[in-house]
Amino acid sequence: MLKFYTAARAPNPRAVENILAIKGVEVETISIDLMAGENRGDDFKKVNPAGQLPALETPEGQVIAEVSAIAEYLEELKPDPVLVGNTAAERAHTRMRMRQMDYLVLSPMMMGYRHSEGADFFSPRMRIDPAIGATMKLIGRDGLTWLDAQMEGQTFICGSQLTYVDCAVHPLVLFLSKVSQPIDADLKNITAYMARCASHEVLGAKAL
Ligand SMILES: N[C@@H](CCC(=O)N[C@@H](CS)C(=O)NCC(=O)O)C(=O)O
After folding, report:
1. CB 164 within 8 A of CB 71
2. Domains of the chain, CATH where assigned
3. Does the C-beta of 91 come closer than 6 Å to ligand 1?
4. Given its phi and psi angles, is residue 37 left (phi above 0), alpha (psi -120 to 50 degrees) or beta?
5. How far apart are CA 16 and CA 12, in angstroms?
6. List of the chain residues with pLDDT < 50
7. Could you tell me if the CB of 169 is within 6 A of ligand 1?
């Protein structure tokens, strides 16, 4: 059976929980105490040397980290329902959007949080510089503004179909909007999208 290393109230693990629930994949769940720093301890770093969650261990004993890599693995394991795409072009579009989200939206917003409100929590774990927090937030807001324009007339980030990009973006943006960077009311398409995800039976199922 797959082993799923996760943590409570953490948006990246939640992205994988969304995918597992939508695909109906059974896993053995192992909860790691992220608040206490168990993920940065020697035992967990033997599982995932990056010291972060989520991580998925295959029955063969290979550990996969990174939400998008886990999503692609689960898609091959259980293709139905499709969360990457039905054709080569659709799959390329989904992967393009995920990469754009990582670079333009999620990473800058996460850095904005870590280098400001989250600085005390993260400073024992990684290099923190409060001087860059505000700029990272502005870069993240530019990314969200760009996404807002891309989403005009669209239901989900890749178009009319829900993909793993939504499974990842919704919990991250929701968490960061609560703890650090509220979504600008001017971003009408993102605001409507977040409400749509909140009413989705899996994505909106439990609070972060
Ligand atoms: N790029 C990684 C991000 C993983 C990540 O940032 N995980 C957070 C939880 S949401 C974490 O482990 N934070 C605690 C830490 O870094 O010590 C992915 O896609 O999985």
Report:
1. yes
2. 2-77 (3.40.30.10), 88-198 (1.20.1050.10)
3. no
4. left
5. 7
6. none
7. no
Q: Alpha helix (H) ranges present in 102-184?
A: 107-114, 119-122, 133-150, 164-179
Q: How far is the CA of 153 from the centre of ligand 1 (A)?
A: 32
Give the list of residues 6+ apart from residue 82 with CB closer than 8 angstroms, or none. Answer: 75, 161
Using a 6 Å cutoff on CB, does residue 67 contact ligand 1? yes
What lies within 8 Å, CB to CB, of 49 at 6+ separation is: none
Q: For the segment 119-159, what is each residue's pLDDT rounded down to a tens digit?
A: 999 999 999 999 999 999 999 999 999 999 999 999 999 99
Which residues touch 130 (CB under 8 Å, ≥6 apart)? Answer: 115, 116, 119
pTM of full prediction above 0.85: yes
For residue 205, give both structure tokens. 């199922």
Of residues 175, 203, 55, the one with CA closest to residue 110: 175
